[in-house]
Every structure is written in C-alpha cells, then in structure tokens.
C-alpha cells in the first residue's frame, strides 16, 4: 500500500484512538471533581521524583469528574514519520498538541519522566472501551484513570495497522521494545502515584494496559512489555 495511504490511515487512527498519541475525548462523567493533589516533588508527603514539567495546553484535558482508581499504560512514538528517529521528544510532544490528545506522564528512553497533565485533570488517553468489573466506566475511563505513555515501538504485528512493513523494518532493533531505564522510572512513578492515590490498588485489575480496555482498537503496551519488571 502506498505510503500516502498509510499516512491518511494513521491520521484517521489517531483521531479515533491508536498507539501513537491517543485521541480519547470520551463522554465526561457528570460528577463533581474530587480534590486530587498533583505531583509535587518538593512535598515531604510524596516520594522524591526527578521529573520534568512540560504541560500540554489545557484544551488537551478537562476537569476530572470522578475519583482516580486506575492507571493505564501506553506506548507512543513518531516512527511513521521518522523511523530513524522515532523518539525525538519535541516531535512526539507536537503530535499531542496537533491532535489535542494527552496523557498525564511520558517516560523517554533514558527514563526521564515528563509531567504533561496534572493529575486533578482528566487526560485524553483511554477513549472508548470497557473493563469487565467496572461496567459503569464504559467509555469513561479518562475520568477515573491516570495515563502513562512510554516511548516505545511494539512488535511488527502490533504496528501493522499504523505503518507499512517496510517502514517498521527500517527501525533500529535497539528502538524496539522498552529500556531498563524506562522500567526503573515507571516503577518509581507508579509507587509515587499509588502513594498519593489510595483508591488505586497495586494489582493488575487497577494497573492496566490500553489493550485490556480496548482490545479491538489497541495493542499497547503490547507483548514486548514485561509486567514482571514493575512487580506484576
């Protein structure tokens, strides 16, 4: 299939939700927003995190309408447009701006954590989907969750709907999957999030992948993500 058609498909995929920046403007929950503390690396009440604040425009999120009970993990990249440099942080950030989508945190290949959206706001990362034990959350998980993006590329099968095989094959093997630094930073970030949000239980029912919530649409964090590296 010509690359121009794939570029059109990836634009459509982004606008309906995919593993590059996820357009997830679901229906807001009609509830009063809870008081939720943002990450404060100066506060003695939180774990100390080395974090870069790089907030997205407010149009990329909304006031949260429900208590936080879940964390959702994703991968993102700019591999379709730049397979030789899929993790240029400015270009990935610009994709979020371009499509008005978001996550609360992003972790780069070196383990640097970026705060993109304060936790008291609902980021646009989950979109349409459902969880077996939380039917009332259907297509509304943005309000109940914290989204974390890791800069990564999945398997060829997972990426096939996003890019043609020839582009995937041109990506360096070292850019496929996840890094040790990412796992270490993600574990530290999750510990901090759970410390500040006691309704999020430390188990696989509450720490989930996008592919569990929307298995037909999503493949991230994918088969290359090792849940045991973060204790699950």
Automatic annotation (TrEMBL):
EC number, as in UniProt: 3.5.1.28
Domain N-acetylmuramoyl-L-alanine amidase residues, every copy: 56-222
CDD domains: PGRP
Cross-referenced SUPFAM superfamilies: N-acetylmuramoyl-L-alanine amidase-like
Entry annotated with the keyword Cell wall biogenesis/degradation: yes
Highest taxon of the lineage: Bacteria
Alphabetized UniProt keyword annotations: Cell wall biogenesis/degradation, Hydrolase
Catalytic activity line of the entry: Hydrolyzes the link between N-acetylmuramoyl residues and L-amino acid residues in certain cell-wall glycopeptides
Protein name: N-acetylmuramoyl-L-alanine amidase
């Amino acid at each position: 299939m010509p690359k121009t058609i794939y570029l059109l498909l990836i634009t459509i995929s982004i606008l309906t939700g995919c593993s590059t920046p996820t357009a997830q403007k679901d229906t807001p929950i009609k509830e009063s927003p809870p008081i939720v503390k943002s990450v404060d690396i100066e506060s003695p009440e939180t774990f100390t995190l080395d974090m870069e604040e790089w907030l997205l425009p407010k149009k990329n999120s909304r006031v949260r309408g429900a208590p936080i009970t879940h964390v959702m993990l994703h991968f993102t990249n700019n591999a379709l447009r730049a397979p030789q440099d899929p993790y240029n942080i400015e270009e990935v950030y610009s994709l979020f701006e371009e499509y008005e989508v978001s996550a609360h945190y992003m972790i780069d290949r070196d383990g640097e954590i970026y705060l993109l959206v304060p936790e008291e706001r609902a980021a646009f990362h989950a979109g349409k989907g459902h969880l077996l034990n939380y039917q009332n959350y259907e297509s509304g998980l943005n309000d109940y969750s914290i989204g974390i993006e890791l800069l990564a590329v999945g398997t060829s099968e997972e990426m096939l709907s996003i890019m043609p095989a020839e582009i995937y094959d041109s990506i360096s093997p070292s850019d496929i999957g996840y890094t040790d630094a990412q796992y270490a930073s993600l574990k530290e970030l999750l510990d901090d999030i759970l410390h500040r949000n006691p309704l999020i239980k430390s188990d696989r029912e509450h720490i989930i992948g996008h592919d569990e919530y929307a298995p037909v649409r999503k493949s991230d964090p994918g088969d290359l993500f090792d849940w045991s590296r973060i204790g699950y």
